[in-house]
Inverse folding.
């Protein structure tokens, strides 16, 4: 079934309920259904057909969602472009996808219109001067549309990876992937139409698009969109809109704590803060729950898992600090195997997570060699290699230790940065930390801690002392650097690739 049908279901069930807002406008579910129908009609009038790729170069906004679902109703394949991409990066994903149209806004139109992309035929612009005017297209198109039939296994969307370690990869999500992801989140989080969400993670990533936007449409719940990350605007919106749930990357949660602004806003409506994308420092979980008087629930997913894979649930009897929760067994299975022998490991033994199930991507777009690397056969089933090292305890709770790529080998010993980072976060006056391996003539790599201080009194000796008290000698940082801030990726994760470039010299 075409996943976009859920827009019309929500419109029939609660036509006058607010569906979406941004800083410029808000729409009910009836209006959302009508505008997405108009987008589908407009695309059809332009000659865009089923299976054609339609790019969205837009910040979080109502128009992003209407263009996304409108393209899907037409049977086309919407895909968002990372808003940090410029020039040749945009050109690459447009060429790679074979996009025939781009929907954007006036302030970004030149970034698209001046590119030379073979298949690109149409530029659709809101509040701009070039290409087709979005508002005029919608006004001239009919408000009714028979959703183009799509089967569960057919391609629904592309989501490109950020490309921090190479060319961006187009991750394929089917209509079935989106359905399983949305329904799984609704079930595990106990969401209903009464929920009020906030989406501030970018919709060009699954953390914005498929953790809140698409599941909230399926639930028929109200969702508020912010175009960019700003701690104070986020707090203002939670207070003004009565937000009950929002999802953050850990660095965003730490930004809120460090801002000192939480006490100035009434955020008592918040029931749950979801966290994922990278490990949440255990030392900060209690502070978040005390500050916002709500529950913080860690989960786990990847672009390649749509992203639902593991999750802590509100009604869970036991939550364990640092755990990403049990596997989402309604939609996926997990296998944990030794990265070298490829044999399954036992309870509490570390290995690579492999995933199989309803939310798992069928593969990368036009990248057969990458599919061979990432999708492997184990006992007649296809499993996705995650690249994440973790373990499962005796109660079935999963813990992520680190990325395989981030593991440090120093003097022949393996060190996972997260273990060291957790210790440094326990030091008062540390606002942020990233641990990387840097070249060392004798050891191969040495442990380097890059620290952001909230109190200038914190010294390198303090960092070394707390590490020596809690870690084996070879895990203690030999090099400690202080910076004003840590570089972030477009999805607000700490950018360790940039840090290794910056501090890579011996």
């Amino acid at each position: 079934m075409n996943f976009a049908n859920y827009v019309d279901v929500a419109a029939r069930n609660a036509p006058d309920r607010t569906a979406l807002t941004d800083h410029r406008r808000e729409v009910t579910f009836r209006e959302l259904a009508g505008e997405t129908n108009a987008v589908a009609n407009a695309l059809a009038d332009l000659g865009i057909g089923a299976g054609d790729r339609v790019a969205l170069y837009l910040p979080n906004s109502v128009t992003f969602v209407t263009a996304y679902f409108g393209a899907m109703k037409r049977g086309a394949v919407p895909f968002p472009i990372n808003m940090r991409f410029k020039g040749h990066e945009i050109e690459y994903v447009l060429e790679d996808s074979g996009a025939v149209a781009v929907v954007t806004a006036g302030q970004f139109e030149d970034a698209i219109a001046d590119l030379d992309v073979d298949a690109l035929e149409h530029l659709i612009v809101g509040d701009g001067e070039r290409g087709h005017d979005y508002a005029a297209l919608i006004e001239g198109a009919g408000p009714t549309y028979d959703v183009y039939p799509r089967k569960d296994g057919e391609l629904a969307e592309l989501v490109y990876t950020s490309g921090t370690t190479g060319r961006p990869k187009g991750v394929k999500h089917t209509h079935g992937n989106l359905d399983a992801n949305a329904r799984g989140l609704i079930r595990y989080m106990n969401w209903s139409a009464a929920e009020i969400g906030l989406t501030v993670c970018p919709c060009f990533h699954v953390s914005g698009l498929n953790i809140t936007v698409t599941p909230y449409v399926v639930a028929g719940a109200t969702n508020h969109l912010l175009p960019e990350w700003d701690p104070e605007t986020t707090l203002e919106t939670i207070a003004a809109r009565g937000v009950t749930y929002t999802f953050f990357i850990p660095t965003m949660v730490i930004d809120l704590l460090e801002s000192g602004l939480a006490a100035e806003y009434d955020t008592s409506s918040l029931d749950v803060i979801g966290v994922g994308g990278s490990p949440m420092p255990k030392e900060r979980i209690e502070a978040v729950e005390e500050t916002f008087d709500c529950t913080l629930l860690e989960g786990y997913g990847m672009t390649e898992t749509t992203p639902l894979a593991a999750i802590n649930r509100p009604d869970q009897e036991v939550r364990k600090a640092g755990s990403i929760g049990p596997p989402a067994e309604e939609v996926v299975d997990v296998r944990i195997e030794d990265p070298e022998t490829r044999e399954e490991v036992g309870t509490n033994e570390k290995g690579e997570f492999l995933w199989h199930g309803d939310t798992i991507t069928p593969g990368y777009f036009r990248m057969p060699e990458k599919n061979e690397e990432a999708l492997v056969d184990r006992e007649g089933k296809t499993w996705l290699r995650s690249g994440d090292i973790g373990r499962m305890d005796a109660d079935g709770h999963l813990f992520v230790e680190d990325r395989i790529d981030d593991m440090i080998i120093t003097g022949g010993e393996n060190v996972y940065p997260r273990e060291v980072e957790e210790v440094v976060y326990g030091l008062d006056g540390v606002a942020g930390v990233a641990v990387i391996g840097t070249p060392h003539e004798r050891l191969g790599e040495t442990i380097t801690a890059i620290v952001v201080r909230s109190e200038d009194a914190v010294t390198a000796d303090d960092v070394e002392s707390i590490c020596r008290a809690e870690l084996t000698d070879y895990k203690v940082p030999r090099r400690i650097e202080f910076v004003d801030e840590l570089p972030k990726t477009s999805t607000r994760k700490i950018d360790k690739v940039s840090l290794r470039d910056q501090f890579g010299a011996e």
Remarks:
- Residues 317 and 395 are 11 Å apart (CA to CA).
